[in-house]
């Protein structure tokens, strides 16, 4: 039996035990994991050093090595994340609906764990801990397949966490790490219907597309964000400037950052230079339409392809439109249904934008950077869903649950 | 451009209009469709006659022809179904969550349409109308791909319904019928990410498996039911007999009917003959374990394969177990997570069964035949989901919606 199948089978067996645990039993395991990680930080850093050395030899970029690196402070922050998960309310068992039928049947709909979650991700070792914590808190087992560049770090993290939960009621088999770094192990996970209940990919576009296009197990897609902000005719300049600048520059590498700025022509005629000046000052490359270039110097021409690109970088498209309708049409044609914003003082325009834009999160007069589990008050998140089924937008703990109907009768039969 | 792509694109364009309609506008279209179907029943029956003649020539069984046949009464019942859908509450726009963050951001989570739903189904023309009605009510567009055996019927139904909504605010393009009866049109739908938001298959196991194993568009699986009823040691005979008999015999062809009866050995020793006698009287074939055969005559031996078979017929497996644990283990190994029942007077056993069984619907002392949208009070259903993501069990109208976060700010930026 392959490693993937064997470990997934162990996880599925452990899922039956997880389903019976109380919140207290699960929290005890999370806190034990947190303590063990901080206690054994040196062991984790030693394992991480092997990954870092291998990465450096392989010519990995410094920014990638930085994402991979574990320090004592980072380990403490990761452990603190587990403690925060322990403090979140447990969605499992929550009564969602309750009703009695005329025939006397009493029907309850309650939240239950999903079962076994497959996580496929890249080389950030913190995802190993976050995913384990979120899955265990919700009564799930997890089969983790991280990037090969972090394999030694992940092995050490999982060993420490499994040892920690050995003294609790959470079965050690609830946590599984796939160590086979061949791509075939990913592809095997994607087809493991019956053992894995859901696959959640986290990483770059190529990783996510491979999962979406090849999985037969249901997937929660955490996809790309080509996010827009539309500055309407009636926008206030002093509100528009910080919102747009924050959306682009506060952290360009993330999915909820701005890629394309749309500006109403009347607003542009009066304010385009002032709107764009902070970006020039911050060395953001601006690719614009011809009308933008006619108003402001220093604009490179934007191509149709640019409008469909998630830069994740200090590059921004700017396009002038003549109406709200034109802005809506541009976003419908180029957006990825992630986070979209309108800056306007016109309430009717705001309502139309919020109603008509098809996206996980739609904003009036605020930065798109708020699309985030912590910013929404949900706590740690397993990702931001860009699909429409099951969960959309920042996923709190309830996104890691399913439901079950419990029906109480006293002999009812169907006529 | 292929027929599938062209019609899906038209549906996607229409989805933007559907998203802005009020409940009243949608209901008006549903009622117009209902009236048109009853008014033009002769046209529908004429088209249906062509399908029936073709089917008869092709040697289609009488039971299949019966499922395909439209009569005036059946058309009236189908139209009545549309009127009932019009009367159901509209989930679109429902406020699911509302909260304000410390920074003043006001966040709403509201139900929105899914967008474009692809339905892949077999030869019951009533599904064409039901699916159209349920999808339009929830603000969705639908691309219908029915069985080729019902093509003339479906063409006529869609023509009548499109004509009916032409006089309303619902765009005619919201309803699309794929007329290409090659299997390649199904396979093209399964990969139409970006145009179709979800695929819902309805039909036999082969159809559903093809969809689940080949779709890259998210799927809601409406799968097989290998349902069990476990008669515990403490069960009352007079309650157990009708529950078990109803679960098996009331309508054996459907997914929530009983396939395997599990009986505690102590109950079996006293009552097995009385428990099974009604099945012998009804000419149900019984395949049993050796212990069952030792207690009752007329039992064929059950194989391991029998326990994993959805008969959908007058055949039932019977197995004697020595404990609740053995019953739970058998169901975990052989069930399809659809509907499972325990008949018992022991409340602790009932609670363990309802907690530990991993299924969409778990019953205490009632027939599994109640797993049904109408029986739960949800009204017409698009199907019964056997997956854990998005919707599980009978799917009411909310299962045909997604959600959107609407965020109202006054200049908030992220620090």
Automatic annotation (TrEMBL), chains A, B:
Presence of keyword Amino-acid biosynthesis: yes
Annotated function: Catalyzes the NADPH-dependent reduction of L-glutamate 5-phosphate into L-glutamate 5-semialdehyde and phosphate. The product spontaneously undergoes cyclization to form 1-pyrroline-5-carboxylate.
One cellular component term from this protein's GO annotations in UniProt: cytoplasm
Aldehyde dehydrogenase domain segment(s): 10-277
Functional pathway: Amino-acid biosynthesis; L-proline biosynthesis; L-glutamate 5-semialdehyde from L-glutamate: step 2/2
EC number, UniProt record: 1.2.1.41
GO molecular function, one term: glutamate-5-semialdehyde dehydrogenase activity
One Pfam family cited in the UniProt record for this chain: Aldedh
Chief location bin: cytoplasm
Organism: Paenibacillus protaetiae
Tree of life domain: Bacteria
Protein keywords: Amino-acid biosynthesis, Cytoplasm, NADP, Oxidoreductase, Proline biosynthesis
Family: Belongs to the gamma-glutamyl phosphate reductase family.
Gene: proA
GO biological process: L-proline biosynthetic process
Localization of this protein: Cytoplasm
UniProt entry tagged with the keyword Transit peptide: no
Protein name (Swiss-Prot/TrEMBL): Gamma-glutamyl phosphate reductase
Catalytic activity: L-glutamate 5-semialdehyde + phosphate + NADP(+) = L-glutamyl 5-phosphate + NADPH + H(+)
Gene3D superfamilies found in the cross-reference section: Aldehyde Dehydrogenase, Chain A, domain 1, Aldehyde Dehydrogenase, Chain A, domain 2
């Amino acid at each position: 039996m392959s490693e993937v199948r064997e470990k997934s089978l162990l996880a599925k067996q452990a899922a039956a035990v997880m389903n019976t645990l109380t919140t207290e039993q699960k929290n005890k395991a999370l806190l034990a994991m947190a303590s063990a990680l901080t206690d054994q930080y040196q062991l984790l850093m030693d394992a991480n050093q092997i990954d870092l050395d291998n990465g450096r030899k392989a010519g990995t970029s410094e920014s990638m090595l930085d994402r991979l690196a574990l320090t004592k402070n980072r380990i403490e922050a990761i452990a603190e994340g587990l403690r925060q998960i322990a403090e979140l309310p447990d969605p499992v068992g929550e009564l969602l609906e309750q009703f009695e039928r005329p025939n006397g049947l009493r029907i309850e709909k309650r939240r239950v764990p999903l079962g076994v979650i497959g996580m496929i991700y890249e080389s950030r070792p913190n995802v190993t801990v976050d995913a384990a914590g979120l899955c265990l808190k919700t009564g799930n087992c997890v089969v983790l397949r991280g990037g090969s560049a972090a394999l030694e770090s992940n092995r050490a993290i999982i060993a420490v966490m499994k040892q920690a939960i050995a003294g609790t009621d959470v079965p050690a088999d609830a946590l599984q790490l796939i160590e086979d770094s061949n791509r075939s192990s990913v592809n095997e996970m994607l087809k493991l219907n019956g053992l894995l209940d859901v696959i959640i990919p986290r990483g770059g576009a190529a990783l996510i597309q491979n999962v979406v296009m090849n999985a037969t197990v249901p997937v929660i897609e955490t996809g790309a964000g080509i996010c827009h902000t539309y500055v309407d005719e009636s926008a206030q300049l002093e509100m528009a400037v910080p919102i747009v600048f924050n959306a682009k520059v506060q952290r360009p590498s993330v999915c909820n950052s701005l890629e394309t700025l749309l500006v109403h022509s009347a607003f542009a005629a009066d304010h385009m230079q002032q709107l764009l000046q902070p970006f020039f000052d911050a060395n953001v490359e601006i690719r614009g339409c011809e009308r933008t270039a006619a108003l402001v110097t220093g604009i490179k021409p934007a191509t149709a392809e640019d409008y469909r690109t998630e830069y994740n970088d200090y590059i921004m498209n700017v396009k002038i439109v003549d109406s709200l309708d034109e802005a809506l049409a541009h976003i419908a044609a180029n957006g990825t249904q992630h986070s979209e914003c309108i800056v306007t003082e016109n309430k009717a325009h705001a309502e139309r934008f919020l109603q008509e834009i098809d996206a996980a999160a739609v904003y009036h007069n605020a930065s798109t950077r708020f699309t985030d589990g912590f910013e929404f008050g949900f706590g740690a998140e397993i990702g931001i869903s860009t699909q429409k089924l099951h969960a959309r937008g920042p996923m709190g703990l309830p996104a890691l649950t399913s439901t079950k109907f419990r029906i109480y009768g006293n002999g009812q039969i169907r006529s």
